[in-house]
């Protein structure tokens, strides 16, 4: 990037309501200039700044997999000025994307390993990217067993439902879908908080097994002891953090935890790394 | 050690020793000449480091907001009026407080003392009403009353209006022919002059918000300038945004400002921010006969409604 | 080492000559406030009062700076596509910058010019700038630069160092950029090197002696653990005193944190960056309302930890404090970083 503050111009290609309460929408963007799309080559776990001229920017995890070519996808929760504006935008509108930013899940280290993917709520985006990436026919053989624990408040709040149930039917991935609660008598999956389901369903630790955790601070807090109970060491627990960000390139100074910058040195850290830093996230 | 300091240490230490309060808020000596540090004492030993001099200019009521402990606090006239404000506005209760009142003879104006010298001040000593000020090459003895802060020169409430104990006999209050000469001079300007006056005034503002944060009235959980959804004010150095901050902050202090001068004291750029609030102090007095922070028994004029209000706007 | 001597009577002439090749910035007193500003065509740097309230950091890093702009007019072909505005990066010279402020520029560079990303705004301004320093003959009581890797006659980050030697300046030429500036100014009287260096050395010793022995210590900071310092008990009392304004961060020559804000006017949108401060609760407040540094204690600690520990650990280039003393002088409640630094340096956690 010559000017890391300048977003690539993109066009909104598709908008999909992602949850029953309509608070999340998935946006598919295509680059106005093809060469920008080529420069934007990411790894699962990275994020980007969605950039609306005159409104501002928001850092959002990239929901599409590097194996999905020709577009990038983000699932956005409507919360502040920029995201509210974005939720009202239409297909065809022009805006910007700046990235990819941050490190990613440590794919080099994860090759040949078993993986437990643990996600909660709408932080499932980069985990979706990771699952799609690993399930890609060119990549599936690079990984061992894959388990996924994903929970949301209610069945209607699960992201990427069609894909979840499709993965559920596959035999090369073990899905453990859960909801905090439901009054739907036909719900055939788990009921319970993510940390509880992790404790019950996730595979026991082995030197060949890594856990990737991405979710709201409270879920991260309670999932950590659940994994430790299963025997996971602090180098096998990999977490993706959120902090308030502006620049996304390690310069504006606000997202630090100790000397690490969540935007540039992270957002992915091992628990071992996090144990050395103040918990200011 | 001056008599005030001695008495403040004694009273504060006793309060803590006897367990009457959990902590005392006072001033400690600073690390550079003419500096004091608002500080907390939780033990008699800590209270024994408190000081009092003509540099204890900040307003300690600023440190009371939302505290839950039983607190001893050192209060000069203006601090005491802001304590009244705090009680009236339910930011603290009278029962929580033990007020050590300090009859005040004014605080010094640091910029005008600094302006006496080419070199920086290396030593400052107060001997009664005489100030001994030294630089590396120079030494002056000056009369404190000639170098008072502007708000101290027009102060009509040097004695604490509320207290549990006084550190000394009350001082004689000043009698002034016209405390609002400064405001009238601005009122008499024509529109252009007045606009220019305030433009020049705000020239150096860096929006550090020291004025706001030193002000005991500015305790809003989220200040309007920090609000982001909706965002009322731009965050940059655009003059219209700088103005908006100062204008609205001043109006938010109308009928509440005690003219304690903490805003000017805190400003790193020596901006005379009181040029805004003084006008509102004058208006409150002229329109409502109101001086802020004098009584616990009456609501401030701008937070009350009377059915016989002569203006129609509110009906 | 080349030393040029400049007769003070010839100073203004040289400054005027240099204006043909440089935009000049220097200390000026405006409306009673001393600041580093771009000099008007008839304005000269105030070499008698170069110790400004605000540091010269704004020359490279303005408090408000437009990063990008776009038109929102849907009929325009390039609508909603953000581009960098045209900015004049022709040569600038900062005259009279103090050595500690020049070190600050060198430290700030570590943030804006990194192996992964380069901030083009800061870096372009930096590349365009020549730093002509002025040694401190008479250090202020709040100057502790010698303890923080700089000093009254330090040369780091400078292209030339002027030393006030009474009727003349002795100018140490330190880089080709410095050489170019003096040549543009027509200052070309080469001084006797040995003699002038000896004179400079004398003045330097005098200034350092006036500062007294080092009273601020940083020697043990590197070996402390971040978590120990983070958990130290002294942050609470410090936070009580702090009124949480941004004065220390704004007057600081090394505080570089910024905010990015969009604004619109009619059909044009602009993205600005503004100085920000870690003292503000908004600095770290998440959209959800969660705030990892929601308490004043956390914010006060962050400022000192960033300057004196995190930066040190991250870059191994000393502390992010250059000892200019501005925050000590300007803090409304006299929080003194010298004391905090010593507390951190000597802190041993209770086992």
Written account of the structure:
Chain A: Its cofactor is [2Fe-2S] cluster. Chain A: It is an enzyme of class 1 (oxidoreductase). Chain A: This is DsrB1. The complex is a heterotrimer of chains A (281), B (315) and C (351). Chain A has 281 residues and is an alpha/beta fold. Chain A has two domains: 8-100, Elongation Factor Tu (Ef-tu), domain 3; 107-240, Rossmann fold (3-Layer(aba) Sandwich), CATH 3.40.50.80. Chain A contains eight helices and 15 strands. The relative contact order of chain A is 0.14. Chain B has one domain (3-109, 148-288). Chain B is globular, with a radius of gyration of 20 Å. In chain B, 40% of the residues are buried. The mean pLDDT of chain B is 94. By secondary structure, chain C is of the alpha/beta class. Chain C is globular. The relative contact order of chain C is 0.16. Chains A and C meet through strand 4, strand 6 and strand 13 of A and strand 4, helix 6, strand 9, strand 10 and helix 9 of C.
Under CATH at level 1, the class of the largest domain in chain A stands as Alpha Beta
State the CATH topology of the largest domain in chain A: Rossmann fold
Q: Main sheet of chain C?
A: 7 strands, mixed
Helix percent of chain C reads 25-40%
**What order do the SSEs of chain A take from the amino end to the carboxyl end, as H and E?**
EEHEEEHEHEHEHEEHEHEEEEH
Strand order of the largest sheet of chain A: 10-9-8-7-11-12-15
The main pleated sheet of chain A reads as: 7 strands, mixed
Give me the strand/helix succession of chain C.
EHEEEEHHEEEHHHHHEEHHH
Mean pLDDT of chain C: 95
CATH homologous superfamily descriptor of the largest domain in chain A: Nucleotide-binding domain of ferredoxin-NADP reductase (FNR) module
Are there runs of chain A of 5+ residues with pLDDT below 50, and where? Answer: none
Salient structural properties:
heterotrimer; B: 315 residues; alpha/beta; five-stranded mixed sheet; 11 helices; globular; C: 351 residues; 2 domains; seven-stranded mixed sheet; three-stranded antiparallel sheet; 32% helix
Helices and strands, with pairings:
The complex is a heterotrimer of chains A (281), B (315) and C (351).
Chain A lengths: L7 E10 L6 E8 L2 H6 L7 E6 L3 E6 L10 E6 L3 H7 L6 E8 L5 H4 L3 E7 L4 H11 L10 E7 L8 H9 L4 E6 L10 E2 L2 H8 L7 E6 L2 H13 L7 E4 L15 E2 L2 E2 L6 E3 H4 L7
Parallel strand pairs in A: 7-8, 7-11, 8-9, 9-10, 11-12
Antiparallel strand pairs in A: 1-2, 1-6, 2-5, 3-4, 3-6, 12-15, 13-14
Helix pairs in contact in A: 6-7
Chain B lengths: L2 H15 L5 E7 L6 E6 L2 H4 L23 E5 L1 H12 L8 E5 L8 H5 L6 E7 L2 E6 L3 E5 L6 H4 L11 E2 L14 H7 L3 H12 L7 H5 L24 H14 L9 H5 L7 H15 L27
Parallel strand pairs in B: 1-3, 3-4, 4-8
Antiparallel strand pairs in B: 1-2, 5-6, 6-7
Chain C lengths: L1 E6 L3 H8 L4 E8 L2 E6 L25 E8 L20 E6 L1 H14 L7 H9 E6 L25 E5 L3 E6 L2 H10 L7 H19 L14 H5 L4 H7 L5 H5 L6 E8 L2 E8 L20 H20 L10 H5 L6 H10 L5
Parallel strand pairs in C: 2-5, 5-6, 6-7
Antiparallel strand pairs in C: 1-8, 2-3, 4-10, 7-8, 9-10
Helix pairs in contact in C: 1-4, 7-9
């Amino acid at each position: 990037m010559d000017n890391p503050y300048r977003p690539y111009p993109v066009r909104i290609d598709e908008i999909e309501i992602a949850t029953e309460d309509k608070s999340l929408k998935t946006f598919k963007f295509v680059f106005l200039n093809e060469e920008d799309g080529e420069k934007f080559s990411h790894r699962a776990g990275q994020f980007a700044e969605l950039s609306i001229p005159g409104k501002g920017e928001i850092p959002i995890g990239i929901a599409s997999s590097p194996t999905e070519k020709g577009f990038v996808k983000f699932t956005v929760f409507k919360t502040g000025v920029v995201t509210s504006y974005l939720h009202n935008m239409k297909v065809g509108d022009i805006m910007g994307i700046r990235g990819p930013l941050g490190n990613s899940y440590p794919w080099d280290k994860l090759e040949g390993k078993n993986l437990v993917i643990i996600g909660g709520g709408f932080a499932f985006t980069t985990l979706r990217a990771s699952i799609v990436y690993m399930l890609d026919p060119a990549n599936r053989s690079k990984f061992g067993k894959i388990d996924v624990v994903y929970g949301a408040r209610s069945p209607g709040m699960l992201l990427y439902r069609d894909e979840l149930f499709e993965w559920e039917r596959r035999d090369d991935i073990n899905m453990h879908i859960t909801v905090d609660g439901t009054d739907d008598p036909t719900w055939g999956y788990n009921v319970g908080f993510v940390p509880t389901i992790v404790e019950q369903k996730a595979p026991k630790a082995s030197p060949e097994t890594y856990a990737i955790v991405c979710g709201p601070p409270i879920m991260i807090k309670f999932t950590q002891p659940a994994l430790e109970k299963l025997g996971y060491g602090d180098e096998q627990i990999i977490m993706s953090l959120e902090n308030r960000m502006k620049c996304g390139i390690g310069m504006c100074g606000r997202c630090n935890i100790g000397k690490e910058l969540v935007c540039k040195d992270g957002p992915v850290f091992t628990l071992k790394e996090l144990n050395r830093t103040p918990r200011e996230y | 050690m001056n008599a005030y300091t001695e008495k403040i240490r004694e009273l504060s230490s006793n309060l803590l020793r006897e367990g009457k309060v959990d902590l005392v808020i006072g001033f400690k000596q600073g690390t550079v000449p003419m500096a004091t540090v608002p500080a907390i004492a939780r033990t008699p030993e800590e209270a024994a480091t408190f000081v009092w001099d003509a540099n204890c200019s900040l307003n300690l009521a600023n440190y009371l907001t939302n505290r839950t402990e039983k607190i001893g606090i050192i209060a000069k006239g203006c601090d005491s009026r802001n304590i009244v404000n705090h009680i009236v506005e339910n930011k603290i209760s009278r029962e929580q407080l033990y007020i050590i009142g300090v009859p005040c003879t004014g605080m010094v104006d640091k910029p005008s003392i600094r302006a006496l010298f080419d070199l920086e001040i290396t030593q400052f000593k107060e001997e009664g009403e005489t100030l001994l000020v030294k630089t590396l090459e120079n030494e002056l003895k000056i009369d404190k009353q000639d170098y008072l802060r502007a708000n101290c020169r027009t102060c009509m409430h040097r004695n604490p209006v509320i207290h549990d104990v006084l550190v000394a006999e009350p001082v004689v209050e000043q009698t002034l022919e016209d405390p609002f000469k400064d405001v009238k001079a601005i009122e008499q300007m024509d529109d252009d002059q007045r606009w220019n006056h305030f433009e020049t005034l705000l020239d150096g503002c860096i929006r550090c918000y020291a004025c706001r944060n030193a002000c005991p009235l500015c305790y809003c959980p989220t200040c309007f300038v920090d609000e982001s959804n909706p965002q009322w004010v731009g965050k940059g150095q655009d003059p219209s945004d700088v103005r908006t901050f100062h204008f609205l902050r001043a109006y938010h202090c109308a009928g509440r400002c005690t003219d304690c001068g903490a805003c000017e004291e805190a400003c790193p750029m020596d901006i005379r921010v009181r040029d805004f609030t003084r006008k509102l102090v004058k208006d409150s007095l002229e329109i409502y006969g109101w001086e802020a922070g004098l009584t616990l028994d009456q609501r401030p004029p701008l937070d009350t409604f009377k059915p016989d209000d002569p203006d129609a706007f509110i009906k | 080492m080349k030393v040029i001597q400049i007769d003070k009577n010839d100073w203004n002439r040289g400054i005027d000559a240099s204006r043909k090749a440089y935009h000049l910035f220097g200390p000026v007193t405006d409306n009673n406030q001393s600041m580093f500003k771009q000099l008007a065509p008839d304005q000269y740097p105030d070499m008698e009062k170069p110790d400004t309230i605000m540091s010269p950091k704004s020359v490279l890093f303005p408090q408000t700076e437009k990063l990008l702009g776009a038109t929102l007019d849907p009929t325009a072909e390039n609508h909603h596509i953000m581009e960098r505005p045209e900015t004049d990066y022709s040569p600038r010279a900062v005259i009279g910058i103090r050595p500690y402020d020049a070190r600050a520029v060198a430290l700030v560079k570590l943030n804006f010019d990194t192996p992964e990303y380069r901030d083009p705004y800061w870096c372009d301004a930096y590349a365009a700038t020549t730093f002509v320093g002025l040694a401190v003959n008479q250090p202020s009581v709040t100057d502790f630069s010698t303890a923080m890797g700089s000093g009254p006659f330090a040369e780091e980050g400078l292209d030339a160092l002027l030393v006030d030697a009474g009727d003349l300046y002795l100018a140490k030429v330190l880089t080709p950029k410095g050489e170019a500036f003096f040549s543009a100014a027509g200052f070309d009287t080469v001084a006797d090197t040995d003699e002038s260096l000896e004179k400079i050395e004398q003045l330097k010793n005098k200034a350092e002696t006036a500062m007294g022995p080092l009273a601020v210590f940083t020697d043990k900071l590197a070996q402390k653990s971040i978590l120990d310092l983070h958990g130290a008990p002294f942050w609470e009392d410090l936070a009580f005193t702090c009124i949480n304004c941004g004065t220390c961060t704004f007057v600081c020559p090394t505080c570089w944190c910024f905010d990015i804000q969009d604004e619109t006017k009619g059909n044009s949108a602009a993205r600005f960056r503004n100085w920000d401060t870690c003292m503000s609760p908004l600095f770290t407040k998440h959209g959800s309302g969660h705030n990892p540094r929601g308490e004043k204690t956390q914010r006060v600690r962050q400022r000192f930890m960033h300057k004196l520990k995190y930066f040190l650990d991250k870059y191994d280039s000393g502390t992010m404090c250059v000892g200019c003393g501005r925050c000590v002088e300007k803090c409304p409640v006299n929080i003194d970083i010298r004391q905090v630094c010593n507390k951190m340096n000597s802190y041993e956690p209770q086992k």
